[in-house]
């Protein structure tokens, strides 16, 4: 028995077509010196984890299709509590404003022997011997089918500077392929779309460990036009643990920087989800004073949410929403794009485990 969670909206606001600029060299992520001699991006550590907190594989995709449309597609395969898995899928057409989001929660857990997550609607894994140099995801969900593949390119970002940080009352371990090369096909609102790899990119996040910020968080993954890739974490204040508010940046050559971020993200222009009754916002500010950097995050579509269509709660709802970025970086004008993730306070020790 499984629970299907869904959300479908057609926005009236048309948005411009965009080709997503790729800046990473055509070099495997494994071949960067920092990957070889610094922090270790070991998929086997994720696979073997069998504890509380978080274990997840997460793809944020920025696709240009052969039809000229641009799409934001977010795919999550994760454990949900000690007994279940969650498969979450969302898609936004940035030209029409169409968006759809759904999750399937059913018994089972991610594999602890190989890189694989499998549910009745989503199968993710790798055909490579190292379980890293090629990954795939196939959706059979009638509302949103796809068959996608990725090859890791560019540097790896190690959150917290070395791949772990305090996330709530314990440690979370995480590393990110910030500019994977995607390929494949998808069906969006009845339209068959083929991905144009050279005008598309994907951010792949591996996260595991007992750390879990039960009070919720604001997170961003950001791809700037100067080639810098940023992950921003701002956890909500909670009496049970120290608030985290920082950004990890990785440059095209693979070197990283870690900076504190002001913990007030200045949310503006609220809207309330008809699915979950959660209040979201269309605009935020990411202020990094020591870096002489201030970024304005604008979410053009009220979408990206995955949660139940009946009985939705903060325990099983999360939003990964496309965002445009503009502002200043090192004091100079900058633009970019990415994902803003909002998780509300659910009081759970792990996702969905309330």
Task: Note down, in words, how this protein is organized.
By secondary structure, the protein is mostly beta strands. It has a single domain, classed as AttH-like domain (AttH-like fold, Beta Barrel), CATH 2.40.370.10. It has helices at 33-37, 43-48, and strands spanning 3-10, 54-64, 70-80, 84-93, 98-107, 116-118, 122-125, 135-139, 146-151, 156-158, 164-167, 170-188, 191-194, 201-209, 217-224, 229-235, 245-250, 256-260, 268-272, 279-288, 293-298, 305-306, 318-329, 332-343. Strands 1, 2, 3, 4, 5, 6, 7, 8, 9, 10, 11, 12, 13 and 14 form a 14-stranded antiparallel beta sheet that branches. Strands 15, 16, 17, 18, 19, 20, 21, 22, 23 and 24 form a ten-stranded antiparallel beta sheet that branches. The longest helix is centred in the N-terminal third of the chain and has 6 residues, at 43-48.
Summarize, please.
The protein has helices at 33-37, 43-48; strands spanning 3-10, 54-64, 70-80, 84-93, 98-107, 116-118, 122-125, 135-139, 146-151, 156-158, 164-167, 170-188, 191-194, 201-209, 217-224, 229-235, 245-250, 256-260, 268-272, 279-288, 293-298, 305-306, 318-329, 332-343. With 354 residues, the chain is mainly beta.
């Amino acid at each position: 028995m499984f629970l299907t969670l869904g959300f479908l909206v057609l926005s009236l606001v048309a948005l411009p077509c965009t080709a997503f600029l790729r800046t990473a060299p055509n070099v495997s992520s494994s071949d960067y010196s920092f990957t070889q001699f610094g922090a270790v991006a070991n998929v086997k550590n994720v696979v073997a984890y069998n504890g509380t907190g978080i274990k997840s594989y997460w793809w944020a995709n920025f696709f240009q299709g052969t039809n000229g449309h641009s799409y934001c597609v977010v795919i999550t395969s994760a454990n949900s509590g000690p007994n279940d898995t969650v498969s979450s899928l969302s898609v936004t057409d940035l030209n029409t404003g169409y968006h759809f989001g759904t999750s399937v929660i059913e018994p089972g857990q991610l594999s602890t022997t190989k890189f694989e997550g499998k549910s009745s609607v989503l199968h993710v894994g790798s055909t490579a011997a190292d379980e890293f140099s090629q990954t795939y995801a196939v959706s059979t969900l009638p509302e949103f089918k796809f068959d996608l593949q990725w090859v890791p390119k560019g540097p790896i970002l190690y959150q917290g500077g070395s791949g772990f940080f305090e996330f709530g009352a314990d440690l979370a371990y995480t590393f990110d392929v910030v500019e994977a090369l995607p390929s494949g096909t998808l069906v969006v609102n009845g339209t068959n779309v083929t991905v144009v790899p050279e005008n598309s990119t994907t951010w792949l996040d591996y996260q595991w460990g007992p750390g879990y910020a039960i009070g919720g968080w604001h997170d961003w993954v950001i791809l700037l036009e100067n080639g810098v890739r940023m992950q921003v974490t701002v956890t909500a204040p909670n009496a049970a643990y120290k608030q985290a508010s920082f950004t990890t940046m990785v440059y095209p050559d693979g070197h990283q920087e870690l900076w504190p971020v002001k913990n007030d993200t200045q949310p503006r222009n609220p809207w309330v989800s008809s699915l979950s009754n959660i209040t979201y916002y269309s605009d935020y500010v990411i202020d990094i004073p020591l870096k002489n950097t201030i970024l304005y995050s604008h979410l053009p579509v009220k979408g990206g949410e995955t949660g139940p269509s009946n009985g939705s709660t903060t325990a099983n709802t999360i939003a990964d929403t496309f965002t445009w970025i503009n502002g200043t970086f090192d004091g100079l004008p900058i633009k970019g794009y990415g994902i803003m993730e909002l998780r509300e306070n659910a009081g759970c020790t792990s996702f969905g485990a309330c």
